[in-house]
Amino acid sequence: MTPARIFGGLVLLLALYCGIDPFKHSAISDFPDFEAYIVDLPPWSQRPNDKDTENQLQKSEIKFLNQVQGPESMAFDPLGRGPYSGVADGRIIFWNGESWTDFAYTSANRSELCNTKPSPLSYLKNEHICGRPLGLRFDKKTGELYIADAYFGLMKVGPEGGLATSLASEAEGVPLRFTNDLDIDDEGNVYFTDSSNKFQRRNFMQLVFSAEDSGRVLKYDPVTKETTVLVRNVQFPNGLTLSKDGSFFIFCESAPGRLMRYWLKGEKTGTSEVFVTLPGFPDNVRSNENGEFWVALHCRRSLYSHLCNFYPKIRKFLLKLPIKAKYQYLAIIGGRLHAAVVKYSPEGKLMQILEDSQGKVVRAVSEVEERDGKLWMGSVLMPFVAVYQLG
User: Fold this and answer.
1) Using alpha carbons only, how large is the chain's radius of gyration in Å?
2) Which of 21, 41, 69, 333 could serve as 88's disulfide partner, Cβ 3.0–4.6 Å?
3) Which residues have CB under 8 Å from 331's CB, separation 6+?
4) pLDDT tens-digit profile of 210-264?
5) Cα(125)–Cα(181) distance, rounded to whole angstroms?
6) Beta pairing, strands 100-105 & 162-163
7) Exposure string for 265-300, b = 16+ CB within 10 A, e = fewer
8) What mean pLDDT do residues 99-108 have?
9) 312 near 38, Cβ under 8 Å?
10) Cα of 330 vs its chain's centroid, Å
11) Residue among 141, 140, 171 at smallest CA distance from 154
């Protein structure tokens, strides 16, 4: 019997001894058909292990503390104004240089439920009503803002803001259940990710635990108004960004912790391949003016999470225990939130890594936007924006 099974059995016996029903109030008790799947990972000994021993992200400036909650994506408009960001209560807000103002929203049915300010995870229960704008991108030609709303799909709003209009809410007859990120090419085609057709964003922890592969990468054609599936059977597709020359795009596959490259031009058009294996769990990826790619990592992969990914039956068993989802999530990601950002060349070579391994200043990063020598870092979990001055 393996150590993991022994550990699980001991926890189960303890739960029974204490009179707790281990199959009632667990992280997956609301999902009777929950299944966990194996994740394709390199051996632990071959994982990328480059580190920032100086913890340089601890030099970041924390801005707008408690003025924003969960600023997932950072975007600047074609005139250089901003940042704009989608926040936990469903609004897209704009920094006008002096204060945050409302710019746009994705739900036409916002209510008082959307105006409350509970703890960060408490917003999850109302997201399907209030909307949850995640990835943001401006069309540089028109000034329109394109939005990946986790619940309402692919949307856009004009340069003056207001209520966004829907562009796509399904593909091939399958609804978009967890629209996550996007980018736009020079012809106005929108490439975007749908992280799962089984779990919505409010159940993102269960998606992490499951590692199921119903995620898709899609394309919206503004001329035909059609949405097509480019890549299917992806384990938690997340951030997406086009290369500088438009010959390919990169998307994050969060469960196995890697960047995938999808070719739009050349001999490999229409195919995808592994671009980079990452040292942790990625969220968004963004390119800079030089065509290099910044990747936001929520944290490094731990040995515990590595073993759980290899043995889904054990992972499913452990998740049935009466332990709250947030604690199971913390165990999966290494016990604490600790941020890291990495930069890769257009060829996939590691160029830079910045960390706060103790989570003293920057505890989680969802996106890194490089602008004017600074890294603007948003986080879906934190009540602030972190800014790091590049040397």
Assistant:
1) 20
2) 69
3) 304, 305
4) 999 999 999 999 999 999 999 999 999 999 999 999 999 999 999 999 999 999 9
5) 21
6) parallel
7) eeeeeeebeebbebbbbbbbbbbbeeebbbbbbbbb
8) 96
9) yes
10) 16
11) 171
For 52-70, write each residue's pLDDT tens digit.
999 999 999 999 999 999 9
Whether the per-residue pLDDT at 177 is higher than 50: the answer is yes
Q: Which residues, 6 or more positions from 32, have their beta carbon under 8 angstroms from its beta carbon?
A: none
- How far apart (Å, rounded) are the C-alpha atoms in residues 345 and 170? 34
The one-letter amino acid code at 320 reads K
- DSSP summary character for residue 51: -
Distance spanning both ends of the chain, measured CA to CA: 52
Give the list of residues 6+ apart from residue 139 with CB closer than 8 angstroms, or none: 145, 146, 184, 188
Residue 105 carries which side chain, given as an amino acid letter? Answer: Y
Q: CA 25 → CA 20, 203, 361, distances in Å? A: 9, 15, 34
pLDDT band at 88 (very low <50, low <70, confident <90, very high): very high
Identify the CATH number of the domain in which residue 371 sits: 2.120.10.30
Run of H or E residues at 210? helix 204-210
Per the structure, the complete domain to which residue 43 belongs is given by 27-389
Report phi then psi at 180, rounded to 5. Answer: -125, -55
**φ and ψ at 121, to 5 degrees?**
-75, -15
Structure tokens belonging to residue 199:
């779990």
Q: Does 16 map to a domain? A: no
Q: What is the mean pLDDT of the chain?
A: 90
2 in any annotated domain: no
Residue 85 belongs to a domain: yes
**11 class by beta-carbon count within 10 Å (0-12 exposed, 13-18 middle, 19+ buried):** middle
CA distances from 110 to 164, 202, 231, 338 (A): 13, 17, 33, 34
177-298-345 Cα angle (round to 5): 100
List 150's β-bridge partners, or say none.
none
Output the pLDDT for position 154. Answer: 98
- Region 113-141: mean pLDDT is 85
Span 137-155, average pLDDT = 97
**Element holding 258 (H helix, E strand):** strand 258-263
Token code pair at residue 15: 């739960």
Structure tokens at 313: 């039956």
Is residue 135 included in any domain, yes or no?
yes
CA atoms of 116 and 254, how far apart (whole Å): 31
Is the Cβ–Cβ distance between 310 and 41 less than 8 Å?
yes
